[in-house]
Write a structure and sequence with these properties.
The complex is a heterotrimer of chains A (272), B (296) and C (128).
Chain A lengths: L1 H35 L6 H4 L6 H26 L3 H7 L2 H6 L4 H33 L6 H28 L3 H22 L12 H12 L12 H6 L11 H24 L3
Helix pairs in contact in A: 1-3, 1-6, 3-6, 3-7, 6-7, 7-8, 7-11
Chain B lengths: L2 E12 L2 E7 L2 E3 L3 E6 L5 H8 L7 E6 L2 E2 L3 H10 E4 L11 H9 L7 H11 L12 H13 L5 E5 L7 H16 L3 E5 L3 H7 L2 E6 L2 E7 H7 L1 E6 L14 E7 L2 E6 L3 H10 L4 E6 L2 H12 L1
Parallel strand pairs in B: 4-9, 4-10, 7-8, 8-9
Antiparallel strand pairs in B: 1-2, 1-3, 1-5, 5-6, 10-11, 12-14, 12-15, 13-14
Chain C lengths: L12 H15 L11 H8 L3 H13 L3 E4 L3 E4 L8 H22 L3 H18 L1
Antiparallel strand pairs in C: 1-2
The chains are: A mainly alpha (272), B alpha/beta (296), C mainly alpha (128).
C-alpha cells in the first residue's frame, strides 16, 4: 500500500511544491496589500463593516484569490492516472502487477487529497507568519476552519479534474477541458450572483446590507446560484456549527462520489 | 498434466478489425511454450487478454484455473504470474533499487537471493536512475523484476529484444534453470533460433488465428523439405496430398514442404517415377516463414 | 566438455546430445562409471530445455549406454549392454544398403552380388 502512495507522491511532488509556492505567494501578496492599502473607503465600509483584518482575509483569500489558486493546483494534481502511463510506456508494467485499476486510482487520489489539504493548511501557516510580520491579529480558528471547508467542498474539483484526464488524456487537452468544465460555469455564475452573500454576514451587518441592496434594487438570488461552488468553498465569514453549509457539502460529496464511480467504471472498462 | 493457461474461442475485435479470432490454446505446466507470429498477428493482444489488460470480445480463458475476464480472478492471476511486457519502460524517476523495493512489496514470495544474484550478473547499478540506463540495462532490469517474483508462471513478451548475444545467452540460461525448478514459461519472440533452443512447445499465430500448436520435437521430426526431379514436367496439381504445406513446381523439378505424412508423400513421388529425391529437415525459421507466406 | 547443440540444424537437439555423449564414450573422454552432470546442470551449461536432457538420459538408459541411479544421477553404464536387436538390425540394414550400392557401382549385378555374399558367409563358417 505504501509503495503505491510513495509512487503517487513522487509523481505529484513537483506540482505540490509549485502549489506550495503559489499559495504562499498569493497569501503574502494579499497580506501585503492590506498592509499597504487603506480599505476604509471600500464598499464594505459603507455597510459599516469595520476595517477588520479577519474579514479582509476571508474576502480576499477564501472568497477570491486563494480559492482560485488552490482550485487550480488541486486540478493540476489530479491530472494523472494510468492513462498517462500509457503514453510513457510503463502501463504494461503497472497493470501487470497484482493491483486492481480501482486501487491504482484511489490511492493516487488519496495522495492528491492529502496534498491539497496540505496546501490549504500551509495557507494557515503563511497567514500566521505573515500577519505576525504586519502586526495584525485575527481569529486563528476561523482561518483554520475556512481552510478545512475549502478542501471539504473542493473535493469535487479534484474528482472532476481526474475525470477530465481519464476522458481526455494529455496534459494540455485535459487541463483545457477541466478549465472549461469548471471555469466557464464558475465565471458565469460569478458574474450574475452576489459574490459575498448578504446572508453570510453576521448581524448587525446583515440587516444593513440587506437594506442597502433593497435600496439599490438588486434582484434576488437566481435559482442556479445554488450551483455556486465558490460560495460553498468560501463559506460565511463566521464559521461555526450552524453556519457551515452542510446541505451544500452533502450535495457536493454525493456528486463527488458519483463522479468517482463513473471514472472508476470507465477505467475498468477500457483496454490498455 | 495440468493446463496452466487455457483459452476457448478467445476473440478480440477492435471495431471491424479482428485482432484475435477464436483462439484455442493450452499451455501445460512445466513446459516452455513459444508463441510465434508476425507483428500485428495478435500475440501481444492475446497476452494482454490473459493478464486482464484487454477485455476479450468473446470466448473465455483461464490461468491457473482462474478466469481472465473476472476482475477478482485476474488479480489472483497476477499474484502468481511474472509478466515482462514488450515495452520494457519503467518509472524513470526511480532508481534501480527503488523500483526493486517497490515491486517486491507486491510479491510475498519474492526471491531475495535470486534478486541479488541477478543484480550482480546483470551488473545493474543500484543507485542509478532508470532514465539514465541504456536500453539493454533497462531490459535486464525489467527481466529481473519479473524473474525474482518467485512465480510459477513466466509470461514474457519479446524477452531478449535489444540485448547483446552474451546477455541473450545469460537470459536463456536463467529461463532454463527456472524451468528445471518447475516454472512454466510462455514467451513470444521474433528470435526463432532462441525459440528452437529452449522451447519444447510451439504455437504459431497468423492474423489472429492459431496455425500451429505442436511439441517442438514433433515439428522438427515431421517437417521435411522434399525436392524431386522428374523425367517429364510436373504440375502442382499432381501433388494434392495431405501433409503438403507448400508446393513449388518448375519444369521437371518440384519443391515440397510437408508437415507430416512424409512416407506416403515419398511413395507418391516415387510412383511418379522421380529420378532424384532429396529429403531435408527444416529449421523452425523456414517452417515459420513457409507457414505465414502460404497464408498470405 | 559438451558443445552447445545447434538449434537450427535439421537434427533435433536431443539427437545431437545423444551423439555427443556416445562420441565421448567412444573417444574415451568418458569412461564406464563416470558420472554425467545432473539434468539441471546439463541444461544450464548447454542452455537447452531440461526436458530435452531428461529425454536424452532416459533414451540412453534404455539403450544401455547410461545407468540412472535413483537420487545420485546418471552414470556411464559399467557393462555396455548389447544394443537391442532392432538397433542392430537397423544398423545392419544401413550397412547392407551401402554395401550393395557400392558393389552395383562396381558393375556387379544382383546374382553376382548374392553369390559373393554367400561365398563369404560360407568361407567365414569354414574359417571358424
Amino acid at each position: 500500500m505504501s509503495a503505491l502512495l510513495y509512487k503517487a507522491w513522487r509523481e505529484t511532488r513537483v506540482r505540490f511544491l509549485a502549489g506550495l509556492a503559489a499559495v504562499a505567494i498569493i497569501c503574502i501578496f494579499q497580506i501585503e496589500q492590506h498592509h499597504t492599502h487603506d480599505f476604509s473607503h471600500s464598499g464594505w465600509a459603507g455597510l459599516g463593516i469595520p476595517d477588520d483584518y479577519g474579514f479582509f482575509l476571508w474576502q480576499y483569500l477564501y472568497v477570491y484569490f486563494l480559492q482560485q489558486g488552490w482550485a487550480l493546483f488541486a486540478v493540476l494534481l489530479a491530472l494523472d492516472g494510468l492513462i498517462r502511463e500509457k503514453a510513457s510506456g510503463t502501463v504494461s508494467f503497472s497493470l501487470g502487477l497484482p493491483v486492481s485499476r480501482k486501487r491504482w486510482m484511489f490511492t493516487r487520489l488519496a495522495v492528491v487529497l492529502m496534498e491539497s489539504a496540505a496546501l490549504s493548511l500551509f495557507v494557515v501557516l503563511v497567514v500566521i507568519v505573515g500577519s505576525a510580520v504586519i502586526h495584525q491579529t485575527f481569529s486563528l480558528s476561523q482561518v483554520f476552519l475556512h481552510a478545512v471547508l475549502m478542501v471539504a467542498a473542493g473535493v469535487i474539483v479534484i474528482a472532476l479534474g481526474n475525470l477530465c484526464y481519464a476522458l481526455f488524456p494529455g496534459n494540455y487537452r485535459s487541463l483545457l477541458v477541466a478549465l472549461a468544465l469548471l471555469g466557464v460555469p464558475y465565471l458565469w455564475i460569478q458574474r450574475h450572483v452576489q459574490r459575498t452573500r448578504v446572508t453570510d454576514l453576521p448581524e448587525p451587518f446583515r440587516a444593513r446590507a440587506a437594506l442597502q441592496l433593497t435600496r439599490l434594487r438588486v434582484p434576488h438570488q437566481p435559482w442556479w446560484a445554488h450551483f455556486d461552488l465558490a460560495h460553498a468553498m468560501a463559506g460565511p465569514w463566521q464559521l461555526n456549527l450552524t453556519t457551515t453549509p452542510w446541505v451544500a457539502l452533502l450535495v457536493i460529496w454525493t456528486l463527488t462520489a458519483l463522479v468517482l464511480a463513473v471514472t472508476a467504471a470507465h477505467g475498468d472498462r477500457i483496454d490498455y | 498434466m495440468a493446463a496452466v493457461i487455457e483459452t476457448v474461442e478467445l476473440k478480440k475485435n477492435y471495431g471491424k478489425h479482428e485482432a484475435v479470432r477464436g483462439l484455442n490454446l493450452s499451455v501445460q505446466a512445466g513446459s516452455v511454450c513459444a508463441f510465434l507470429g508476425q507483428n500485428g498477428a495478435g500475440k501481444t493482444t492475446t497476452i494482454k487478454m490473459l493478464l486482464g489488460m484487454v477485455h476479450p470480445s468473446s470466448g473465455t480463458g483461464s490461468v491457473f484455473g482462474r478466469r481472465i475476464d473476472n476482475e477478482n480472478d485476474s488479480l489472483l492471476i497476477r499474484q502468481k504470474v511474472a509478466f515482462v511486457a514488450e515495452d520494457k519502460r519503467l518509472y524513470d524517476y526511480m532508481t534501480v533499487e527503488e523500483i526493486v523495493r517497490f515491486t517486491k512489496t507486491f510479491f510475498p514470495r519474492w526471491n531475495h537471493d535470486f534478486e541479488r544474484r541477478l543484480m550482480e550478473q546483470f551488473d545493474l547499478p543500484p543507485k542509478r536512475k532508470i532514465r539514465e540506463l541504456s536500453k539493454g540495462m533497462r531490459t535486464k532490469l525489467a527481466l529481473l523484476l519479473g524473474f525474482a517474483r518467485g512465480c510459477e508462471l513466466l509470461i514474457l513478451d519479446e524477452p531478449t529484444e535489444g540485448l547483446d548475444p552474451v546477455a541473450v545467452e545469460d537470459v536463456l540460461q536463467i529461463v532454463v534453470s527456472m524451468t528445471a525448478e518447475g516454472t512454466t514459461v510462455f514467451f513470444s519472440s521474433h528470435q526463432i533460433v532462441e525459440v528452437e533452443q529452449i522451447a519444447d512447445h510451439v504455437l504459431m499465430i497468423d492474423r489472429g488465428q492459431l496455425v500451429m500448436d505442436a511439441p517442438m520435437d514433433q515439428v522438427k521430426e515431421q517437417y521435411r523439405h522434399i525436392q524431386a526431379v522428374f523425367p517429364d514436367p510436373v504440375d502442382e496439381r499432381d501433388f494434392r496430398l495431405p501433409g503438403i504445406e507448400t508446393i513449388q513446381a518448375k519444369g521437371c523439378a518440384v519443391s515440397l514442404v510437408a508437415s507430416h505424412n512424409v512416407d506416403s508423400i515419398l511413395e507418391h513421388v516415387h510412383m511418379l517415377r522421380a529420378t532424384n529425391v532429396d529429403v531435408v529437415p527444416l529449421s523452425l525459421k523456414e517452417i515459420f516463414l513457409g507457414k505465414v507466406k502460404a497464408r498470405s | 566438455m559438451f558443445r552447445k547443440p545447434n538449434p537450427s540444424s535439421g537434427v533435433p537437439i536431443y539427437v545431437q546430445l545423444k551423439e555427443q555423449i556416445r562420441h565421448a564414450i567412444e573417444t574415451g573422454a568418458l569412461s564406464a562409471g563416470d558420472q554425467l552432470p545432473g539434468i539441471r546442470g546439463m541444461a544450464e551449461t548447454l542452455v537447452v530445455n531440461p526436458n530435452t536432457v531428461i529425454k536424452v538420459y532416459r533414451e540412453l538408459e534404455q539403450e544401455g549406454v547410461l545407468e540412472i541411479r535413483h537420487g545420485l544421477g546418471a552414470f556411464i553404464a559399467l557393462r555396455r549392454r548389447r544394443q537391442s536387436r532392432t538397433e542392430e538390425f537397423r544398423d545392419g540394414q544401413r550397412l547392407a544398403r551401402e554395401f550393395v550400392d557400392a558393389l552395383k557401382e562396381q558393375g556387379l549385378d544382383e546374382r553376382e552380388i548374392r553369390r559373393l555374399i554367400e561365398a563369404e558367409l560360407a568361407g567365414d563358417f569354414q574359417r571358424r
